[in-house]
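Sequence in, structure out. Go.
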Amino acid sequence: MKNSVSRKIEVEIGISVFIGVTLLICSGCARPTGELFATSATPIVWPKPPETARIRYLGQISTEKDLQRAVSWPESLGQLIFGQKEIGVLVNPYAVALDDKNRLLIADTSGSVIHLMDLKTRRYRQIS
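Output:
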């Protein structure tokens, strides 16, 4: 009788631990996927009125974390087991371009790389 009660408690503890770990893993999955930059009431533009604005400040990106990409549960599990991958950081950005697929390309002279940030899918990679 005592063994069956003890065994039942062990099973309940095991299930509780499993549910807790699953919730921890899944909690890293919920990241915002809406607008990347919040719109402000008074936009910052250049040149100032009365001239026609040609450049508008939307926000800043300095690391791949700024893309706020949603992480799938297999990726969360991989990060839990193998650790987080190295984050792409802009060291000395020199030139910026935006292509027709809404990808931001940033030439980094110190890192001798091009940072490619897909603003639509929120994916990041380096081209060296």
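Check: The CA atoms of residues 9 and 15 lie 10 Å apart. The first strand starts at residue 44 and ends at 46.
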